[in-house]
């Protein structure tokens, strides 16, 4: 899915003007580069005038010494032009890389600050292409395209005026033959701008496909779908190729006019010049100088098409980058933040509602009025059928998403009134899908402890305690121990190993509230039992909300909350809910069946559950008898 630019209505100048904050620190160097380039152009324009004087004087009179002086004069001008070109590069190349660095840093910071809802909508390949390809293109345009475009336009203007120096008719021919190029340039902008945007978006889609296939290589190989992925990639690559060919055709058309019109101008000027010489209006040295000047102007004229397309590419890249900068961040720090001096960990959901941004207007809220209180130090298990909203509920305490109604409080303070940095010091999470980074085991586990020096004794103590709780001692046996660099997303480890390290990371953060979304799903039975035993000690002083997808996880909890159709319909001890809630019994039976399918074990139906099933069947039979009786009465 490509993201359409929200800035397409801006003019090219207005779109590029948005780069001003990034360019302002190097503006002096850019001006220096532009002046150097202009000086080089002016020197080049002086050479035809010097040549005219050489032809008129030393060559006409045959003075060898003066000819040599004139030749050295032309050489000096050429060396001066080369020096100015070198100076232009010296002025702009390094500062342009500073702009690139600052844009990349700011864009990365922006991506980190934008809410999860933004990342749900955007493909990672699109973000990657903007971060690397588009910003690199903007840097090249600032260092090269912008200055040369401005200087070459000025050079053409100055040169055109100088052409009138020899004869007005020759200058007029030069200007009139240039009109078709400007008309074609206007039409070119309309067409090429659309193609450039389409091409860059398609390149982002292609990058997404590559990333997805690399990350999902195990799945593709396991299902033998490599050829299917290749076919899909080939179609996308072919679409991009066709767009690039359309761009090339558009550039080819503008180059046709840029090549044709100067040739026509040269031909007409030659015929007119010969006629003017015959008429005595000009002499041969003047015609020679005119053509020398026209030759100097040929490169600036021909470069306009390339530089114009370069500018449009840069404009499109700027639009794509600013699509991200202009995104509204809905999860931000409050204007007047509140701080919790001594957090206790009382977590409360008060009439909390939530619906995803793409939910239909007729759909009910996914979380439809959640009322739930976790007391300090309490462990609460959250159970419910698939799709009931359990995982979504766990994202609210850390403000990965914000409630769309009601509120979530920590120690009586609305979490939206806390600075995000403080909130996320108090609330830590471990997800079922454990994500690790390309860093050492130490850095991954201590990710949430910015307050620690990773090489300190205290960091070592926290690290080893967290690994012990998560039963992640295997990390010590890795090739370089705790300094082993984990591969991208931790795919070099097993699912259970990744999950244990992610759990260790959450434990090491030492939060007051710990939110665990089925953190033990990939563990074997024996390891799970050891982790649960260690977690009991950790959770003794920590408020914990645990999504339970396995019956054994429920055993960790002091109380259990039942989530049904977006609402908490029952809260209590496991044994009490088995007796009082038919839906809870159904959920637990489902969890036991899933666990039996996973482990190959026979489901263990406790006496309480068996009695509950008998009671449920009796209630169903009584209801059926009552319905039959009512039908007879109505008959």
From TrEMBL:
The chain crosses the membrane at residues 30-51, 57-79, 141-162, 168-188, 254-278, 284-301. Residues 613-635 are annotated as: Disordered. Residues 347-590 form the ABC transporter domain. Residues 622-635 have a biased composition (Acidic residues). Its main location: membrane. InterPro entries: AAA+_ATPase (IPR003593), ABC1_TM_dom (IPR011527), ABC1_TM_sf (IPR036640), ABC_transporter-like_ATP-bd (IPR003439), ABC_transporter-like_CS (IPR017871), P-loop_NTPase (IPR027417), Type_1_exporter (IPR039421). Residues 31-313 form the ABC transmembrane type-1 domain. Keywords: ATP-binding, Membrane, Nucleotide-binding, Transmembrane, Transmembrane helix. One of its GO terms (molecular function) is ATP binding. It is a multi-pass membrane protein. It is found in: Cell membrane. The lineage of its organism: Bacteria, Bacillati, Actinomycetota, Actinomycetes, Micrococcales. PROSITE patterns: ABC_TM1F, ABC_TRANSPORTER_1, ABC_TRANSPORTER_2. This is ABC transporter ATP-binding protein.
């Amino acid at each position: 899915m490509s993201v359409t630019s929200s800035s397409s209505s801006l003019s090219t100048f207005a779109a590029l003007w948005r780069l001003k904050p990034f360019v302002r620190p190097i503006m002096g160097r850019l001006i220096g580069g532009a002046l150097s380039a202009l000086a080089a152009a002016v020197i080049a324009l002086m050479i035809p005038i010097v040549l005219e004087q050489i032809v008129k004087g030393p060559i006409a009179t045959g003075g060898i010494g003066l000819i040599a002086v004139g030749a050295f004069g032309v050489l000096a001008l050429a060396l001066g032009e080369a020096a100015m070109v070198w100076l232009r590069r010296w002025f702009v190349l390094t500062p342009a890389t500073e702009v690139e660095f600052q844009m990349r840093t700011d864009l990365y910071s922006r991506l980190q600050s934008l809410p999860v809802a933004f990342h749900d909508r955007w493909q990672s390949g699109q973000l990657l292409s903007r971060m690397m390809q588009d910003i690199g293109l903007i840097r090249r345009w600032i260092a090269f395209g912008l200055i040369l475009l401005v200087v070459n336009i000025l050079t053409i203007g100055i040169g055109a005026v100088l052409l009138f120096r020899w004869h007005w008719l020759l200058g007029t021919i030069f200007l009139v033959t240039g009109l078709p190029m400007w008309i074609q340039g206007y039409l070119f902008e309309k067409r090429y701008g659309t193609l450039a945007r389409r091409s860059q978006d398609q390149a982002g889609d292609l990058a997404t496909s590559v990333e997805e296939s690399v990350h999902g290589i195990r799945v593709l190989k396991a299902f033998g779908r490599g050829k299917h992925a290749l076919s899909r990639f080939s179609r996308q690559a072919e679409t991009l190729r066709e767009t690039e060919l359309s761009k090339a055709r558009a550039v080819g058309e503008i180059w046709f006019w840029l090549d044709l019109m100067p040739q026509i101008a040269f031909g007409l000027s030659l015929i007119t010049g010969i006629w003017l010489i015959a008429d005595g209006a000009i002499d041969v040295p003047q015609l020679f100088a005119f053509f020398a000047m026209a030759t100097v102007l040929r490169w600036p004229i021909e470069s306009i098409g390339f530089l114009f397309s370069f500018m449009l590419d840069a404009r499109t890249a700027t639009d794509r980058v600013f699509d991200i900068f202009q995104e509204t961040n809905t999860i931000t720090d409050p204007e007047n933040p509140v701080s919790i001096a001594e957090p206790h960990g009382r977590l409360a959901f008060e009439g909390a509602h939530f619906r995803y941004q793409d939910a239909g207007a007729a759909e009910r809220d996914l979380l439809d009025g959640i009322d739930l209180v976790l007391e300090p130090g309490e462990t609460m298990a959250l159970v419910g059928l698939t799709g009931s909203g359990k995982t979504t509920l766990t994202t609210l305490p850390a403000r990965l998403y914000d409630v769309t109604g009601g509120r979530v409080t920590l120690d009586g303070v609305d979490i939206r009134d806390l600075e995000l940095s403080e909130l996320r010091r108090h609330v830590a999470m471990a997800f079922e899908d454990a994500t690790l980074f390309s860093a050492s085991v130490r850095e991954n586990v201590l990710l949430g402890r910015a307050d620690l020096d990773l090489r300190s004794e205290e960091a070592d103590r926290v690290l080893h305690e967290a690994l012990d709780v998560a039963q992640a001692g295997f990390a010590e046996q890795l090739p370089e121990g705790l300094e082993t660099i984990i591969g991208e997303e931790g795919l070099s480890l097993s699912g259970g190993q990744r999950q244990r390290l992610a759990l260790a990371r959450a434990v090491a953060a030492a939060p007051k509230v710990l939110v665990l979304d089925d953190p033990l799903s990939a563990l074997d039975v024996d390891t799970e039992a050891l982790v649960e035993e260690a977690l009991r000690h950790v959770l003794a002083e920590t408020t914990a909300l645990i999504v339970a997808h396995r019956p054994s996880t429920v055993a960790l909890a002091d109380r259990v909350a039942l989530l049904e159709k977006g609402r908490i319909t029952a809260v209590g001890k496991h044994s009490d809910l088995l007796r009082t809630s038919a839906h809870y019994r159904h959920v637990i039976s489902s969890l036991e069946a899933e666990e039996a399918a996973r482990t190959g074990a026979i489901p263990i139906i406790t006496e309480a559950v068996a009695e509950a099933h008998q009671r449920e069947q009796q209630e169903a039979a009584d209801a059926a008898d009552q319905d039959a009786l009512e039908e007879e009465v109505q008959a």
